[in-house]
Design a protein that fits this description.
It holds the Pfam family tyr_de_CO2_C. InterPro entries: GrpII_AminoAcid_Decarb, PyrdxlP-dep_de-COase, PyrdxlP-dep_Trfase, PyrdxlP-dep_Trfase_major, TyrDC_C. Its EC number is 4.1.1.86. The chain is α/β, with parallel strands linked by helices. The chain has two domains: about 350 residues, 3-Layer(aba) Sandwich (Aspartate Aminotransferase, domain 2); about 160 residues, no CATH class. About 45% of the residues lie in helices and about 10% in strands. It has 22 helices and 13 strands. The strands form two sheets. It has a seven-stranded mixed sheet with strand order 2-8-7-6-5-3-4, with helices on both faces. Strands 1-12-13-11-10-9 form a six-stranded mixed sheet, with helices on both faces. Helix 1 packs parallel to helix 4, helix 4 runs antiparallel to helix 16 and helix 5 crosses helix 16. The chain starts with 19 loop residues before the first helix and ends with a helix. The relative contact order is 0.13. About 0% of the residues have low confidence.
Length: about 625
């Protein structure tokens, strides 16, 4: 593949609509093309309406009412929507979106394809399958053997991960119950059946297909007979998990009590030693492990889990104990960052060569340490996971709703599909899948083909490698690093006779920078949390003036109930006593996904930081005034 020549600033409409002329031209083109398409369909057909019909009072009145409703909607959108596109917004995993994906969505939406069935979406079904192959290649999967598709978001993608893991785990048990198939697992105990590796189970499914028994045996798996309480074992999920994992265990009938939480370390990655200890204890007890999750880009901290250690642990369990389990990577937030490690041939680059290229092309400049070696190894090992969740609508810079799931071995789809097996028969020399009925192979039914077109178009313009998405994502990584450095070294902000210190939770693994304000000399963690909650309230939609606010962010609370004592490490570093932590058991933090690509210029960022400090001082002054007013009201009462 040739090296892409690409200007990142030409990809986005821009915070001041700098590329408005091109954007308007292409939107007009999209609408005009659709209008001509309609008009040219069987030109011998007479028009439905005549000019006289269109000038009737009720016709004109309907158009006027339509215009009025759309103007009303526009007013609502402009006054209350969140300006993700602006560098003044540093909050959720959102930023400006690619022009090409927006225009592709509009262009395709007018044709209204439904990717549930090929006959309702002959064009966009193919685009979805191609986009799925793009993502599989990015994760290091063999595109001829893997399978990926678009979902509404990471939640549904995670559901599918649990879905396939559940059905896969129960297949050996079903084989043992079938008279004509049980010889395939003859002599194996239930314990052995519940601890087979994913690949070994899928090899058994091939044998079932050869015997034409697959559908009969599949009916005996959990999809047919249901889940027996606790039989399939435990699902090990980091404490940093997204709440969709709790929902998934509920929806799949496995039960939330069968989630085993894995503690996290001071960087909010899964604690490796504890993970190993928990796994070995379950094995000693004879408890099967249904699956294990690693998170690549935690929702609250942006941390990159030790995927390599999870894969290493599974291999060790297989070799020493004959125990295996399914591995899913929840990379909804961080999945696209893997493009940062790939050359133009989709090859994962060696660490030293990667750093040299970053420096040579000014993707990651001197003074910015990225990636940390642990982060590098985590991304590298993703190719060994059984399935991966990724959200194009996060670090893919594509509009909502665009999630995706990729599965390393496409044979696994037959365990969840609702049509005959052998979905992936090769129909031509290219090995393309033909007429795949997506709706029967996935969790969702009707789905917008426009989303698939948006993802496909983005991948064609911005390749999933270091010279494509790498340049876009790299800008945010650099800015996040600069932001974290500024917070770490920031002098106190003085407001009247009070001083406030800013510090980050930790150095970011890529985009996410968490930080807090602490009043110097105030030992109360409760007051600290209240101060930061109020900062959020005046720097978010909660202020009631989203569009006119001069800085917007998001927030979260790191509590003992979810993280154990890990947040205490940060509380202690901020000078709070153990007694304060034991009393409060939570740290309220401000949460900023620094995804903007508009602050990559060093001088521009310096100006931005200077302005931001002034904004912080103004906000703190506003909070102090509010507190004084509340105190006076209490006295008066």
């Amino acid at each position: 593949m040739f090296k892409t020549t690409m200007n990142v600033d030409a990809l986005f409409l821009g915070p001041k609509s700098e590329n408005r002329e091109f954007f308007k031209e292409m939107v007009d083109y999209a609408v005009d093309e659709h209008i001509h398409w309609r008009a040219d369909f069987h030109p011998e057909d007479a028009p439905l309406l005549s000019p006289m019909d269109q000038h009737q009072p009720d016709f004109r009145n309907t158009l006027y009412r339509t215009e009025g409703i759309l103007r009303q909607l526009s007013s609502k959108l402009k006054t209350t929507s969140v300006p993700w596109f602006s560098p003044r917004y540093l909050g959720h995993m959102n930023a400006d979106t690619l022009m090409v994906s927006n225009i592709a969505y509009v262009m395709t939406m007018l044709y209204n394809p439904n990717n549930c069935a090929h006959e309702a979406s002959p064009t966009t079904t193919e685009l979805e399958l191609e986009a799925g192959r793009d993502l599989c290649a990015m994760f290091g999967y063999d595109v001829q053997k893997s399978w990926g598709h678009i979902t509404s978001g990471g939640t549904v993608a995670n559901y599918e991960g649990v879905w396939v893991a559940r059905n896969l785990k129960s297949l050996p048990l079903a084989i043992a119950q079938h008279e004509k198939a049980k010889d395939l697992v003859a002599g194996m105990s239930e314990k052995q059946l519940l601890n087979m590796s994913p690949t070994a189970i899928l090899d058994l499914s091939d044998e079932l297909k050869k015997r034409e028994l697959f559908e009969e045996v599949r009916a005996l798996t959990v999809r047919g007979v249901g889940v027996k309480q606790g039989q399939l074992g435990k699902f090990l999920v980091p404490m940093s998990k997204h709440y969709s994992w709790m929902k998934a265990m509920d929806v799949m009938g496995i039960g939330q009590e069968h989630i085993v939480p894995l503690p996290v370390d001071e960087n909010y990655r899964t604690d490796v030693e504890t993970m190993r200890a928990i796994t070995f204890k379950l094995i000693e007890e004879g408890t099967p492990i249904l699956g294990m999750v690693a998170v690549v880009g935690t929702t609250e901290e942006g941390s990159i889990d030790h995927v390599d250690e999870v894969i290493k642990l599974r291999r060790e369990c297989e070799e020493k104990y004959g125990v295996s389990f399914y591995v899913h990577v929840d990379a909804a937030y961080g999945g696209y960052v893997r493009s940062m490690f790939l050359d133009e041939n989709s090859k994962f680059m060696e660490y030293d060569a990667l750093i040299a290229r970053y420096r040579a092309e000014d993707i990651i400049p001197e003074g910015v340490t990225w990636p940390k070696r642990a982060v590098y190894e985590g991304f590298k090992a993703m190719s060994e996971a059984d399935s991966i969740t990724v959200d194009p609508h996060k670090a893919g810079f594509i509009q909502y709703a665009a999630g995706a799931v990729c599965m390393k071995d496409k044979r696994i789809v037959d365990l969840i599909s609702y049509h005959a097996a052998y979905v992936f028969e090769e129909a031509d020399d290219a090995g393309e899948e033909q007429n795949v009925v997506l709706g029967s192979s996935i969790m969702e039914g009707s789905k917008a083909g426009a989303t698939a077109a948006a993802v496909w178009a983005a991948h064609r313009l911005v390749p999933l490698n270091v010279s494509g998405y790498g340049k876009v994502i790299g800008r945010g990584i650099v800015t996040a690093d600069w932001f974290a450095q500024k917070l770490s070294m920031a002098k106190p902000i003085v407001v009247g006779n009070r001083r406030f210190e800013l510090r980050p939770l930790m150095h970011p693994d890529f985009h996410m920078v968490n930080f807090t304000f602490k009043e110097i000399g105030n030992p109360s963690l409760e007051d600290h949390n209240r101060l930061n909650q109020r900062m959020y309230e005046v720097c978010s939609y909660s202020s009631g003036r989203t569009y006119s606010n001069d800085f917007l962010t998001s927030s979260t609370s790191l509590a003992f109930d979810e993280y154990g004592d890990t947040p205490w490490i940060y509380a202690e570093s901020r000078g709070f006593s153990r007694r304060e932590w034991d009393k409060t058991q939570s740290v309220y933090i401000l949460r900023a996904a620094v995804m903007t690509h508009f602050l990559r210029d060093p001088q521009g960022f310096e100006d931005y930081w200077t302005n931001l400090r002034a904004i912080f001082a103004e906000k703190l002054g506003h909070i102090i005034d509010m507190e004084a007013k509340e105190a006076n009201q209490l006295k008066a009462a």
